[in-house]
UniProtKB/TrEMBL annotation:
UniProt protein name: 3-phosphoshikimate 1-carboxyvinyltransferase
Assigned keywords, A-Z: Amino-acid biosynthesis, Aromatic amino acid biosynthesis, Cytoplasm, Transferase
Name of the encoding gene: aroA
NCBIfam families assigned: aroA
Main location (coarse class): cytoplasm
Known function: Catalyzes the transfer of the enolpyruvyl moiety of phosphoenolpyruvate (PEP) to the 5-hydroxyl of shikimate-3-phosphate (S3P) to produce enolpyruvyl shikimate-3-phosphate and inorganic phosphate.
Length: 440
């Protein structure tokens, strides 16, 4: 088991190249596998989560290879996947499990989706329910958790589905099943969710109808191969955006970061808090908007966060909480109960860690209230538990920039699920961080 130790203080300078977008990387593998022809994926995130997705498709007969900086995938077509010899082990990849459940429901063969202990605690009833309505035979344990057993050869029918929460994973699961269903599949969401699936389906030749919080498709005969240039991951960039904002005399340049409007909430929230963030050279890359992001130190102020802002920044709140702790005034987050069913209960775990470091934090069922300390130090030193959550670990790592003593973070192995090389990248930018083997 690895832990991080970060010495207090410091400032950040220079260019930081964060790895490829995890959400886009997962989808690039899936759609390339289902396409007719060969797809070249550049910028693919070589993380544990995305490699688990790649391995799952290799187990179903999809060949891939590296050519220079590209991942080359030979698609087998919508109906070309082969029955795997064993359960598909997706590690910690919740996105992969939920999206694959929809895809596997349309196959002619039986399959089992499994994962590690953390993934096996996450709720899967939210995808089991709509897939069952479509005619799938999919079952988890008594609580609706993995492993998921999916019986193949079941005819699927298109449905209109109104999920109880706005969720890109639920939406994408149902749309993938809809590729194999009889009739139209339609999703009507209560709020805004990420649209990476819709953008990539369109890039691979699938016609969609889109409206305000609605999307629908009809089954298709084929997907056509399309090269994918994966943007840098905004969720990974968020830690450095916050770090450069809170550390004195800091300026960072983050090239080619994805700024998809359905997930750029962290940028808008930090701007509302007073951050000095500039988006330069805005352009489109494989259907996804990207920009070069410049961030400079700036005094932050507390704000109220709620409504559609929550879903647009759902993965970035651990970093946002660190910004809030350094801001003048109070930051209040509401409507974020979804944070309780991520890799950890991010409301409880972040609150515990913030309190350990001396931050005034109050917990609600659907959010947090954080009273900031704008004058450094904003944090004391201490020992924080990440609960095997990669984003928790990285969030408390950047907190050390405004701490008065070292911060040690336990159980950091899972950082590799989204940001392999985080320690070396952060250290090169100026964070006094090292990774060490924890005593057993």
């Amino acid at each position: 088991m690895r832990r991080f130790r970060i010495e207090p203080g410091g400032h950040l300078q220079g260019e930081v190249q964060v790895p490829g977008d995890k959400s886009v990387s997962h989808r690039a593998v899936m759609f390339a596998a289902l396409a007719s022809g060969t797809t070249r994926v550049t910028g693919f995130l070589e993380s544990a989560d995305c490699l688990a997705t790649l391995a799952a498709f290799a187990a179903m007969g999809v060949a891939h290879r590296r050519e220079g900086n590209a991942l080359v995938i030979d698609g087998v077509g919508l109906h070309g996947l082969q029955a795997p010899d064993a359960p598909l082990d997706l590690g910690n990849a919740g996105t992969s499990m939920r999206l694959l459940s929809g895809l596997m429901a349309g196959q002619a063969f039986d399959s089992v989706l499994t994962g590690d202990a953390s993934l096996s605690r996450r709720p899967m009833a939210r995808v089991i329910e709509p897939l069952t309505r479509m005619g799938a035979d999919i079952r988890g344990d008594a609580a609706g958790r993995a492993p998921l057993h999916i019986r193949g050869g079941r005819p699927l029918r298109g449905i209109t589905y109104r999920p109880p929460v706005a969720s890109a994973q639920i939406k994408s699961c149902v749309l993938l099943a809809g590729l194999y269903a009889d009739g139209e599949t339609r999703i009507e969401e209560p709020g805004v969710s990420r649209d990476h699936t819709e953008r990539m389906l369109a890039a691979f030749g699938v016609p969609l109808r889109r409206g305000d919080r609605r999307v629908s498709l009809q089954p298709v005969e084929r997907l056509r191969a399309a090269d994918v240039a994966v943007p840098a991951d905004l969720s990974s960039a968020a830690f450095f955006m916050v770090a450069a904002s809170i550390a004195a005399d800091s300026e960072l340049w983050l090239p080619a970061v994805g700024i998809n409007p359905t997930r750029r909430g962290v940028i808008d929230i930090l701007l509302a808090m007073g951050a000095d963030i500039v988006l330069d050279n805005e352009r489109e890359q494989a259907g996804e908007p990207v920009a070069d992001i410049r961030v400079r130190s700036a005094p932050l102020k507390g704000i109220a966060i709620g409504g559609d802002q929550v879903e647009l920044a759902i993965d970035e709140f651990p970093a946002i909480f660190i910004a809030a702790a350094c801001a003048e005034g109070t930051t209040r987050l509401t409507g974020a109960a979804e944070l309780r069913v991520k890799e950890s209960d991010r409301i409880a775990v972040m609150a515990d860690g913030l309190a350990t470091l001396g931050v005034d934090v109050t917990v609600a069922e659907d959010g947090l209230t954080i009273v900031g300390r704008p004058q450094a130090p904003s944090f004391g030193g201490g020992h924080v538990a990440s609960h095997a959550d990669h984003r928790i670990a990285m969030a408390f790592a950047i907190a050390a920039l405004r701490a008065d003593a070292a911060i040690t973070i336990d159980d950091c192995d899972y950082v590799d699920t989204s940001f392999p090389g985080f320690v070396s990248v952060a250290a090169a930018a100026g964070l006094a961080i090292r990774s060490e083997r924890a005593a057993s």
